[in-house]
Design a protein that fits this description.
This is Cell division protein ZapB. Keywords: Coiled coil. This protein has 73 residues and is mostly helical. It is 97% helix and 0% strand. The protein has one helix and no strands. The longest helix is centred in the middle third of the chain and has 71 residues. It is rod-shaped, with a radius of gyration of 31 Å.
Length: 73
């Protein structure tokens, strides 16, 4: 009987350790998800800034092409 109780205690201890390990993994995963969300926001901001710059450059190019066409006439 004592042997069975010891085995049960060992199993319970093992399950508690596994639960704690899984909980720690979950916390780490949550932190990683938050870090990736922040990085995603930064990348979206950079993409938007680049899009604005490209649009401005395209407008300048269109103006130069238009000016060049007017000068030829």
């Amino acid at each position: 009987m004592e042997d069975i109780l010891r085995k049960l205690e060992d199993l319970i201890d093992s399950l508690v350790r596994e639960r704690d390990r899984l909980f720690d993994d979950l916390k780490k995963s949550g932190a990683e998800v938050e870090r990736l969300k922040d990085e995603n926001v930064e990348l979206k901001t950079l993409i938007h800034e680049q899009s604005v710059r490209v649009e401005a450059l395209m407008k300048k190019l269109e103006q130069k092409v238009t000016e060049s066409s007017v000068k030829r006439e």
